[in-house]
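Entry 14. Two folds queued back to back today. First construct below, sequence then structure tokens.
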Amino acid sequence: MTGRLLILAEREAGCAERLQAAGFGPDVATEIAGYLSQATDLVAFEAAIATALASVGLSVRFADPTAPEDWLDWLRERPSETLVWPVTDGIRYYRGSAGAATARLIGARRFGSPAAVQHLAQDKAKAGAVAAALGVPVPATGLVRDGEWLSPRPAGSGPWFVKPNTLGAKLGIWADSRVDDLEEALALSRRIFARYRDDAVVQAYVPGYDVRVSWMAVDREEAGLDRIGVYRLDSGGGGETAGAFMTMADNRTLSGTADTEGTASASRAGSAAFVPRMVDLALGEPALAAEVAGLACRAAAAIGLRDVFSMDFRVGWDGKPWLLEFESCPAVTIYDFRRYLADRWGCDLPEALARAIPVALGRGDEL
């Protein structure tokens, strides 16, 4: 077949510059821009992706969404033959995808969730409220801005977990992000606002462990329970939060690419060799894996997630899963997603795209 894939990814350096221009200090700007590490890591995959797509008659262009002069010509020339995939979903501070919205406006096709869903995914409080309304269990949640409640105080006696509302990659999660009472939670919200200018989600803390759900529609459009990846993640990184929850310090070690065995390869200075231990729940706890996958499918279908996404669940020691958040543009270059592709589809990222993109191009016009 003939067709073209436009992969849009905001770059770390440009993001840091824009953040500094908006008044953030260099250290915080660099810290936030690190959220875009998968765009940096993607460079190492570009040649292999281009070769894999060429083998099925497709061409590819990699561009920065903040530089439309580098990619708008593709949309204007042959929109119906061009598939747009925003690998990162925003321009400075992740405020939803200009790339997906522009593609929709011009009439090009899109790989990934619609722009409205990408906007929703970046707001943890609103995304959780939508998921809860669909019957997916979500921990009791409140929203705070610089020490002032924007929502009613969540019911319960604690402990509580406090994190930024619109950031990811464990930004703003420290070893003391789990607190015993709401007054401590308000104090943490002030720290988050001072550092990131972001609201804070205050959520009932679930003693248990993290579970990552991953999906890419490699050979078909609709998610199938047999091909969704459901993995337990154990930090194992040491320190007082080991086995409890991951922090920014843990996530900094994941900035490089990793092979499917979990061995990190430093793609930039500062990368380390630690990655969380992944346990495929479909092998050890199939009933739990099926329950989590069912909740993920329900949420994805109702919200409009498609093509590629991830979800983070917390499973309590009583075995009950709780949805924490979903991501419309997951980090497809790092250890967990590449392990999922190898386990469920038997391929690496370039081959996965060579199989998935023709399916997406062949599904017809989009509303």
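Second construct, same run, same settings:
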Amino acid sequence: MGFISLDFPREVLEIASDGKQGGRYSVKNWAELERYWKGKNGSGNVYFTAYGYRATKPPRNHRVDYDTPIIRHFVMDFDCKDFKQRGADVDFPFMHEQVKRLHRFLIHENIRHFVWFSGGGFHFWIPLRDTHTPSDGYSVARVKEGGRKLITQWHKKLNLSCNDPTVAFDTSGMIRIPNSYNSKRGCWSIPMDSDSILNLTHDEIMEKAQTPVSGYIQLGENDVAITVADRKSPFKKTVEKVEGLPDITLGSTIVLPCLSQAALGEGNPTHKARFHLVTYLAARFRWFYPVAAIGNEEKAEHVKLICRIIEEQGWVDYNPRVTREQVENIVFGGAGNSGYSAASCATLEYDGLCVGKCRYFDGSIGDNNE
């Protein structure tokens, strides 16, 4: 068995080393991806969607249809942050010990995986036994729910607090291209063998990463499976709420797990994910009162807070003027001043953002959706 198949079309983006922001656009085949990759390595950071897709969005078809991913694998992203402690910074050895625990567990279970040093942490690419091809938001949400259950089991069993819970099974998210250059860290993303994962120090890994390495290193032999619900909606009102992945917070504000995965962190979130994040934050900041019940001075303060949050995420196409205009439109309620309510769980599931029934489930998905 080889590395995971790269399906097309998929989307690519660049975060330039000089701080210039790149765009997000689709590549139709391996040749296009390779031309893009070779043109950027050494001068910027190159990313692509973790998945390929089966369709593009008409009429221009220059972007993929995020409801049609080809899900053959998932990626776990380990950073020097403790997500059980609101993303607090930790030192490299603390994170590295968790990487070793996961690797030892996967080797013991003979689960096939591939590991890359990413510059600041590690990426685990883990193939799935079955290929999942959802065709709408509901079916995307079911796959995410199945993936969330598996990841949660591993989190609890191995105490993986440094695994970014927003990355795995994010079907529209971006990941650094394996073996590409990390201009921010000044090193290459390199494939890791078992001995290097378990025995090298950070300085030794960084030294190795000064030289580009091609190819991949397979670890383990058997692919893992996730359980996907066969009904239209994965939820029943009678089912008890379950604990999900670690909470992501922005200051004292908890962000829903689905919105954390879809919109927070570096990358280029979809318009749909950004819209739902802003409507949710706007509603949280006004304590879910109607828009008309809040004065303009307070709304203006909410605009500042939300724009500051967005600026800190590192979206590659971030534009302060455009962001402020769109946030103001949502916070102030648009031309009719009727306002935008935070989306229900049913809407988030329909839009393919749901990652499974979490402690914040609002009861809007029930028996009538089966």
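Quick look at the second one. DSSP finds ten helices and 15 strands in the chain. The longest helix spans residues 137-158.
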